[in-house]
Amino acid sequence: MARLLARAGLPAPVREDALAVFGRLAAAEARVHGVAVDDVAFHEVGAWDSIADVVGVCAALHDLSVADVAAGPVAVGAGRAATAHGDMPVPVPAVAELAAGRSVLAGGDGELATPTGMALLAVLAREERGLPPMRLEATGVGAGSRDTPRRPNVVRVLLGAAEEGPGDGPGVGAAEAVVLEANVDDLDPRVWPGVLASLLEAGASDAWLVPVLMKKGRPAHALCVLSPPGRADRLRTEMFRLTSTLGVRERTVRKTMLRRGWARVDVLGARLPIKVGHRDGRIVQAAPEFEDAARLAAERGVPVRAVLDAAVAAAHAAGLAHGEPAPPGLEAGPPT
Length: 336
Prior knowledge:
Blueprint: H1 2-6, H2 12-33, H3 48-63, E1 70-71, E2 74-75, E3 77-78, E4 80-83, E5 86-89, H4 93-98, E6 104-105, E7 110-111, H5 115-124, E8 127-128, E9 134-143, E10 154-162, E11 172-184, H6 192-201, E12 206-213, E13 219-227, H7 232-242, E14 249-267, E15 270-279, E16 282-288, H8 290-300, H9 304-317
Parallel strand pairs: 1-8, 2-6
Antiparallel strand pairs: 3-7, 4-5, 9-10, 11-13, 11-14, 12-13, 14-15, 15-16
């Protein structure tokens, strides 16, 4: 499976998430069958359609820049189901193993939750909660081929931006996040920029270094990673892989965010995106992204500082300044 996904040419975050899903599934199957993980035969879940399901879900979340996934109680079904191991009670052993720690309910006759579906939830939707406060942007509905009396055979996904909840100030969104930290005193300093870039590519909301002084006066760095709850496992694994640390500590924090969007202004003959943070209908922050400015500077053969200055001036001229009304129709995600 790992070799198959490695040859597929997938973006790194998609490949890693898909591998994590199949890894969680293999661990569950190994536990219920009492065998080593390497000896697991996937049977139904190894079929091409299940591989497409897992990769498709992971790719969709990556393409939509989804930072946090939540799912409520899972209806696992009731009765019995035909499997490669014969007729078995619902939920089948692998589903029961993967659902450990989650809220489940019978929900109806037959198998309503498959091992593949539960593995996706176990890896991608680590947080179990009802619909969080959000500004709803899109709805997706997928229907299965089996007709169940009195129960539509559909899965629904709601996509939106975090909104304020009880106790949040107006015009801001709040969400839980996980801070992962590790102290490292023996890594070549030239490696750190690549480590930070890799963690951001792997789905970190932010990653940074803090100079620290460790025992016996050794200079070191504290690597800090801000992670959506559903990405913490993967980012923790990346920290072990990319650095020499022997341990990662973590804590849950509450992150409060301005509502944000993107506008474009004319700079040196190009349309440069400006990130706009706003609250209560008024702009709080408006600034160009450094990478976009650096790219345009290289194309035009001018200093990056000149592009940044021109972008700020163009943004002010377009009314994108602190205290000004937030313009309608801001782009919802990073422009491409």
